[in-house]
Each structure stands twice: as C-alpha cells, then as structure tokens.
C-alpha cells in the first residue's frame, strides 16, 4: 500500500515525516518517484500533470493538498470513479481568517494612504469610521468564508455573506443565488472573494460586478486567480470605482515580472500564501480518511463532482 505525494512547496521532508508518523503502514512516495503504479492506492497532490492520476489502476482516494479542488477538475482525464477529499483543517481556516482580517483592517483604517503620506513626509490626519459603520461582504460561506465572516463580525464590522444556497451565521447577514447578488454588492464597501472556482464562478470578479459596489470600494481576492478579470480590475482602479485591491492569487502563478500588478500603487500582492496547508493538521486528516476507507466508513469532506467543490 502506498500514498503518492506531490506538492509545489519546498517542505517535502516535513510532509514525509508527518505522514509517516501517522500512517507508518503506508509507504509515502514523492512525485515523480512513483515506483510501481499498481501499488498507489492514495494520492495527496497539488497540480498533477494531465492524465497522471489516471495512470494508477488501483487508486482508491484522491486528497487535495488544499481547500480548493479546481486543480484536479482541470484534468480532463481525472478518474471519475475515485472519490476526492478536500483539505479542511483548523490551521488552514485560521490562517485565511488572519489574512482577510489583516487586509480588511488595512483598508478600513486607510493604511495604504498613511504609508503614502509617510513616503512623502506629510503629517495629515485621516478620518476613519468605526467598524460598525463599514459594510464587508464575503463571497463564499464555506469553511473558510464562514470563519472569516464570524471573525470580522467579532471585530464589529457589518458583515454579509453571499453563497449559492442560504446560510445562517450569527451576526452575518445572508444573501444567496443570483437574486441576492445585487443587494449584497450594494452594501459591501470591502468585498472579499473566498468562492470555490467552478464554471459558474470563473471570471465573476469583473467590471459588471465592480459596478454594483459602492464607489471607492476595496477588493480582497484570496480564492483563485481565475475568479478575477485582471483587465477589469485595472480599469476599475483607474476610474475610481475601486480604490484598493489586495490579491493573493493570479491568472498566472508565479506572477510574471512584467505584470502591471507589481508596480500598481493601489494593489497589495502576496504570493499565494494567504493560507498554506499545514503538514501537521492535514496529515492527521488524511490518516483519518485512510482509516475510514479501510473500515468502510464515510470519508470526510468529499467533493461533489457536479458542483465542483
């Protein structure tokens, strides 16, 4: 019995150690050292080459090395009969909420403007409303979005969430489906995208959507780069419809050196690190799901292939 591991990070040995401690009976093989493909029963992966997973005839479960699974469904040869489980763990969720809170507070307290004043050597007081006067909208109320929404509500913000189906969260106003999008946008001075990437959500952060926000709103995208129409963001910033953007994900990663985002004065960038997957908690989740598979019990956090998440 073997588990195939593939990551784009440099923490391979840490992952090997954590997985080995929790599943000593399972051999961990790190891509591209596959060995006999027939021995691979489990795969914990990120951005596998097209058709690679279909080459393992005895593959039983695929584990996404992250909360999103769009990297798996992008493979047209993905074996349809194999269940997929996404990563849902406390550390991943907390890190995302930290990232969201950081950038919501950064815009709310006008920190980019203060930093520009510092660069110019100007002493100028800037008025800031209280959090209770600021509308924040979270697109996507899954595990990550729900926790971020609750954290912001705890800071006193007027938080609303928008999702495919109705959700109930204490202190969070809920909007859903197409009918709820316009009123949700109209009250969102700071818009946070934590949606799963599906056919329905690709390109959703567009000029048409930005036009529904209050003028001078801010955008925070920590979901997927393909949610954002990058040219529309630049146009919205140029027109003043948006005042600020914080981006952790991009259409092309790493972001090309010549990309205009690098030098834009009102865009803050980070290299897809809003919420890294932690080897400690994720290895424990994988081990539990391997145990469940062997025992014939339901797997945790399985993906609906029709919905794409």
Could you describe the 3D structure shown?
- With 309 residues, this protein is α/β, with parallel strands linked by helices.
- The protein has two domains: 2-89 and 277-295, Rossmann fold (3-Layer(aba) Sandwich), CATH 3.40.50; 90-269, Rossmann fold (3-Layer(aba) Sandwich).
- The protein has helices at residues 12-22, 70-73, 90-108, 111-120, 143-154, 177-186, 207-211, 230-239, 279-295, and strands at 2-5, 27-30, 40-45, 61-64, 84-85, 135-139, 158-163, 172-176, 190-193, 217-221, 242-247, 267-269.
- The strands form two sheets. The protein has a seven-stranded parallel β-sheet with strand order 8-7-6-9-10-11-12. The chain has a five-stranded parallel β-sheet with strand order 2-1-3-4-5, covered by helices on one side.
- Helix 1 (12-22) runs parallel beside helix 9 and helix 3 (90-108) crosses helix 5.
- 37% of the residues are buried.
Provide a compact summary of the structure.
With 309 residues, the chain is of the alpha/beta class.
List keywords for this structure.
32% helix, 9 helices, seven-stranded parallel sheet, five-stranded parallel sheet, Rossmann fold, 12 strands, 17% strand, 309 residues, alpha/beta
């Amino acid at each position: 019995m073997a588990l195939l591991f593939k990551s784009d990070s440099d923490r391979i040995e840490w992952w090997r150690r954590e997985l080995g401690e929790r599943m000593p009976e399972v051999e961990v093989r790190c891509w591209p050292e596959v060995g006999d493909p027939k021995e691979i029963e489990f795969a914990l992966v990120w951005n596998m080459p097209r058709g690679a997973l279909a080459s393992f005839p005895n593959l039983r479960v695929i584990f996404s090395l992250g909360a999103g699974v769009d990297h798996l469904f992008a493979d047209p040869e993905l074996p349809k009969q194999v269940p997929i489980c996404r990563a849902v763990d406390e550390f991943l969720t907390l890190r995302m909420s930290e990232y969201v809170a950081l950038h919501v507070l950064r815009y709310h307290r006008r920190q980019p403007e203060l930093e520009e004043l510092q660069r110019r050597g100007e002493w100028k007081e800037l008025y800031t409303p209280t959090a209770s006067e600021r509308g924040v909208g979270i697109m996507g109320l899954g595990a990550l979005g729900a926790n971020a929404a609750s954290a912001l509500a705890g800071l006193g913000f007027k938080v609303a969430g928008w999702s495919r189906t109705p959700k109930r969260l204490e202190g969070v106003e809920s909007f859903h489906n197409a009918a709820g999008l316009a009123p949700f946008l109209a009250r969102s001075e700071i818009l946070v995208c934590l949606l799963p990437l599906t056919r329905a959500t690709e390109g959703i952060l567009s000029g048409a959507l930005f036009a529904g926000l209050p003028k001078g709103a801010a955008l925070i995208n920590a979901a997927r780069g393909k949610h954002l129409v990058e040219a529309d963001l630049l146009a919205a910033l140029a027109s003043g419809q948006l005042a600020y953007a914080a981006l952790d994900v991009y259409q092309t990663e790493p972001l090309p050196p010549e990309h205009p985002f690098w030098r834009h004065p009102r865009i803050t960038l980070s290299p897809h690190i809003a919420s890294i997957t932690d080897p400690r908690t994720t290895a424990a989740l994988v081990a539990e799901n391997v145990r469940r598979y062997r025992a014939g019990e339901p797997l945790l956090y399985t993906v609906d292939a029709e919905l794409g998440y």
